[in-house]
Amino acid sequence: MNKRRFLTMTIAAGLLLPTFGAQAQDAGTADKAKLDKAFPSKPNYSPYAGRTFPTMPLFGDTHLHTGFSMDAGAFGARLTPRDAYKFARGEEITSNSGQPVKLSRPLDFLVVADHSDGMGFFPLLMSGDPALLATPQGRQWYDLIRGGKGAEAAFDIIRSFGLQQLPKGFPLPGTAAYRNAWGETIKAAEAYNEPGRFTAFIGFEWTSNTGGNNLHRNVIFRGNGTQAALVEPYTTMPPLGSDNPVELWKYMAATQDKTGSEVLAIAHNGNLSNGRMFPVVEAFGKKIDREYAQNRARWEPLYEMTQTKGTGEAHPFLSPNDELADFELWDKSNLDGSVPKTKDMLEFEYARSALKNGLRLEDVLGVNPYKFGMIGSSDAHTGLAAMEEDNFFGKTAPQEPSPERMSKVFFADPKTGVKVMDWEVGASGYAAVWATENTREAIFDAMKRRETYATTGPRMAVRFFGGWDFVAADATNRMPAAIGYGKGVPMGGDLAKAPNGKAPTFLVAALKDAIGANLDRIQVVKGWVDKDGKTQEKVYDVVWSGNRKPGADGKLPPVGNTVDVANATWTNTIGAPELITVWKDPQFDPKLRAFYYARVIEIPTPRWTAYDAKRFGVKPLPETRMVLQERAYTAPIWYTP
Amino acid sequence: MKRRKLATRALPTVLLLATLLASAPAVHACGLESPSSVNVGLLNLAYPNALHVRTAIWIAQRDGLLAPFDAAAKIDPQSPDVVLRQMALLREIRGQFVALKADMDAGGARAVPSFSVVLLGIVLWTRFEAGDAALNMTVHAPGPGSEDVVIVTDAPVIAALAAGRLTPAEARRRGLMRAYGTAQGVQGVERFWDGVASVKGAAAERLVATTTDRMQTD
Amino acid sequence: MRLKSILREPLLHFLAIGAALFLFFHFSSGGSAGPGSTRIVISTGQIAHLEAGFTRTWSRPPSEAELKGLIDEWVREEIAVREAMAAGLDRDDSVMRRRLRQKLEFLVEDSAEASPPTDDELKAWLAKHADEYRSEPRVAFRQVFVSRDRRGAAAEADAAAILKRLTAEGSSARIATLGDATMLPADFDLAPLRDVDRMFGAGFARQLDAAELGKWSGPIRSGYGLHLVLVHERVEGALPNLEALRPVARREVLAERRKRQLAAMYDRLLEKYTVVIERPVAPQGPASSPAPAKGGS
User: Fold this and answer.
1) How big is chain C by its Cα radius of gyration, in Å?
2) Which are the contacts of A125, defined by CB distance < 8 A and separation ≥ 6?
């Protein structure tokens, strides 16, 4: 091989940019046929042309609110969608409480998803909008707010909204005010969308909240502003809106037809839905049937696994054998604390059990309604997607850094006794997407095929491939990505009809966040439906740092803890910067449906509460969590017999 | 006498305020949960960037200019003695405003535009209106007057001002007080308050001077 | 004689023509005259405008009844406006005043866009804002990873040994079996420095800067371990040419022009007016310099 050819042929080895030149020397079983699958065309002069798979994860937030959202405005957010994009792109801006704030590194994409109900209302009212202030109701709200009786005003606004007794000038779909707010949202996204460098998606949040049960969805447009401007966001108030997801899906279908832009919806973390997020029998008075399953699977390819209001992967009650299931749980009630949670609700609002029930429903209905990939996002109501533990700017404007947030109550319902403290809010999370390039189309397409994973904040790079022919030597290969795509399917994909006598094998790898903590371990979570039609689950430790050995109980000893809480520091003297392995399911039954997803755990690090305690010199309340092990969850790979 | 009348008149309002704070209904929908957060939040919209005062205060506390943040002083609306604690807090604040007003009156009657001070933490309004002989002060006012200049600040700042540990000019410079209103009105109020502070300062200096004199002759 | 010369006076003719015109327009009042007139005419263009608005919202044109409703609403509004203005309700309304100001300023701003910016204007703007739009420097390099995690204390010595070998083999050294396997790319193609930092951690790009072009050097440290690097291409940040930035430059130049024209308009108009500011009774007491007014958005 002459020098020139070698140079032109040498592409970076490793997971992220595989190489041809390495073929001869490498361990691993890359053969030409498999590589052709990953590089279908003949090698060009340019080593990078013809590559068909993604090589770098892109990180973003799919769920951010600005002052355009009614509740964010009510809490004092004044930042606009433009401010939100500027911040996400890495600029330093001033927060709602006057503090300079900047991300450690820019994000790659952002969806500003303001609530569709009453979009743009408070900026409109407080700017003295003549239409609103001409009405006695509007005037009264304005005066109440100026008099510091914002809660009374907000209460009346919400009540009037529920009763549909709103004054002229209130932003409802079809009014000029609403068109302006939606128009400004679109303009902001168009202004900051820079293909190849930063993607700004157009979107909104549909806020179904009946009875305080959180069934919100973030709706994202694949297309541009001209297309999005042909429609207005779907709200929850009849006749133009509804609180039933089935109606939202109808709107989405009509929107696709009308605008020519694809849309998808991501359901809000279900942990505050009191069991209504993943119904198995009936929803809104209708039986869960094949049509429901088809629509749910079609319109909601992703699910928000983790955000500021807690993480919803697993619960100790549902998974008593999973010692890592108790993580940033919010399991006391619904969204406003009006109805406490009971144990029977948990199964229908946590992701793992939903995935399991989805398999079961597939048996019955022929379609799996809960076949989703995972992402994380913030749901911050500040306009700031600031979810790093040492740079956490809270969920609402009053929760921006100040000594008070270590001891304040977030919300409480005196009647039910439910109380959630500010410290329980988590600095989580972000969405990671394996897209071929940083554009709306590529990221959206990756979301649709579920090649995504959730992180609770840090930016680890995680790969998860499933196939029938991975072998141990693949884990030492210098181009695991090419191997992975060549011999199997990536996260979000499907395996079917096991070849005779074979069990599924998985190539899984994780690289720590470049400025973050080492990794403790990678696990694979398997869920399946057994012979009796009952759902089962098992968590496997598949690769870990150091030379720990599972104990007699089969459990891996913990990795250790280098966190100095008082100083809010930790050291990377434990754990490993990279983990990679090939794992085979030891208990595979080819006749049973199953799914597998990877869970990556970091070593313990200080939680934002520890940083606050140090920086403000404030003593935390006794039960405050100060340490956590951040994690990533990949989309599953499903097996169908 | 006047004080007692003020107290009995204020008592129902105090109790009303206390019960409101203690048991305000949780506002349902879109996560509008904590009423006090919404009061402060919407103040931030009505008086743009009022929330910046909160940040300025913790920075001043960190720098030692104000008494350090005391978490124990926070009143949990769910605690059993919440009403008693709130009344104690309100009495303390009222005392500070009375002291401030005494300083203002000591400087002689002045024509100052009417203004209202709102404390961010508990959203408490106190109105000042120029009267014939002295300023009329209404603690626990229902809200600002329609033409009032509005001063946004919080309890630690009032305490420091009342004790003379902080001058209004310094407070403004550090963002511990923000004024909202017409340019004329704001100027009038600020000039007035600065005048009060310098009278107080001058009186303090005279006191020090006479004390020193006395010491030297001893 | 005197009368004749007066009658020939151009000024008189001028006044007479003016009076005639005035009388003519006063009594003809075609179209909907302004406030004070009791005749309201809604034109076909106006009706078409109402129909278009309806269609946009409801995705269909209005029915007869709906159109009648729209027209009725419009007529009511017109009546209300005239009556309100006649009663002087527009006089002290601060919201109205703000809107009128806004509309006047829009007129000026619209005229600012009338003539597109010249190339000279664009070039001048570009020269002034060069630094903001300079493209980032880019780098392309190869790296061999030496894992501290796997080798422990021996990592430094191992890295030195590998460096010797790499130097011997030169820039096209076969690196596929050297050092440790990693998910990080061994070959990093030409990309901005921020992408380097994003992948390897903050500060890595700066360390790369010190490396001599075309030679293996290191080890450089990252959060992952040690790296021996060879930078084989560096591209300096460049100022993009006018063509690439034309839309941005055009937008900014127009914005500046709008601002200038507004300022000029106010300056010109101010000459027309006499402004008297009545100060309030000054407070007695020590004169202190007035603090600047704060607050407001």
Assistant:
1) 38
2) A132, A133, A138, A141, A142, A145
Query: CA A204 to CA A409: how far, in whole Å?
Result: 28
Indicate the domain borders of chain C: 2-120, 135-235
Q: pLDDT, tens digit, for every residue of B117-158?
A: 999 887 888 888 887 777 788 888 888 888 899 999 998 998
| DSSP letters for A521-576 | EEEEEEEEE-TTS-EEEEEEEEEESTT----TTSPPPP-----BTTTTB--TTSSB
Mean pLDDT across the stretch A210-216?
Answer: 89
In angstroms, the CA A440 to CA A426 distance is 28
Q: Residue B35: which of B26, B44, B43 has the closest Cα?
A: B26
C290–B190 CB contact, under 8 Å: yes
What CATH number was assigned to the domain covering residues C135-235? Answer: 3.10.50.40
Is A463 at the interface with chain C, CB within 8 A? yes
Do B108 and B196 meet the contact criterion of CB atoms below 8 Å apart?
Answer: no
* Cβ(A541)–Cβ(A550) below 8 Å: yes
Give the whole-angstrom CA distance, residue B40 versus residue B46.
10
Chains that touch A (3 or more CB pairs under 8 A): B, C
DSSP for A301-362, please give it.
-EEEEEETTEE-S--TTT-TT-TT--SS---SBSTTSSSB--HHHHTTTSHHHHHHHHHHHH
Q: Is the dihedral of CA C192, C196, C198, C203 positive or negative?
A: negative
Tokens of C289: 């310099």
Specify whether the CB–CB gap between C137 and C235 falls below 8 A. Answer: yes
Question: What b/e string do you get for C254-280 counting C-beta neighbours within 10 Å, with b at 16 or more?
Answer: beebbeeeeeeeeeeeeeeeeeeeeee
Which token pair is A407?
């001891």
Report the distance separating Cα C17 and Cα C193, nearest Å.
76
Residue B214's identity, in one-letter code, is R
Distance from CA of C41 to the nearest CA of B (A): 41
CA distance B147 to B115: 8
Across the interface, do B111 and C290 touch by the CB < 8 Å criterion?
no
B127 touches chain C (CB under 8 A): no
State the amino acid at position C105 in one-letter form. E
The predicted model scores a pTM of 0.79
The identity of residue C80, as a single letter, is A
Residue C296: closest CA among B47, B191, B188: B47
- Backbone angles phi and psi of A59, in degrees to 5: -110, 140
Q: What residue segments make up the domains of chain A, in order of their start?
A: 58-433, 461-640
Contact status, residue A481 vs residue A603, Cβ threshold 8 Å: no
Give me C287's structure tokens.
């004169």
Q: In chain A, which among 117-176 make CB contacts under 8 A with chain C?
A: 128, 130, 133, 174
- pLDDT tens sequence for chain C (297 residues): 567 776 677 666 666 666 666 665 555 544 444 555 788 888 888 888 888 877 766 667 788 888 888 888 888 888 888 888 888 877 767 667 777 887 888 777 777 667 888 888 888 888 888 777 778 889 999 999 999 988 989 999 999 999 999 999 988 888 888 999 888 888 888 888 888 998 999 899 999 989 999 999 989 999 999 999 999 999 988 877 778 778 778 878 888 888 888 888 888 888 888 877 766 544 443 433 333 333 333
Bond before A239 cis per omega within 30 degrees: yes
- pLDDT given for residue A48 in this prediction: 39
User: What are the structure tokens assigned to A413, written together?
Assistant: 């319902």
Interface test with A, best of C102, C136, C184, C224 (most A CBs within 10 A): C184
Q: Is B199 on the interface with C (CB under 8 A)?
A: yes
Which residue from B45, B54, B68 is facing A73, i.e. has the nearest CB?
B45
**Close Cβ partners of C274 (under 8 Å, ≥ 6 residues apart):** none
Instruction: Inspect the interface and report whether the beta carbons of A403 and B71 lie closer than 8 Å.
Output: yes
CB A322 within 8 A of CB A284: no
C-beta separation of A528 from A593 below 8 A: yes
The yes-or-no verdict on residue B165 having pLDDT over 50 is: yes
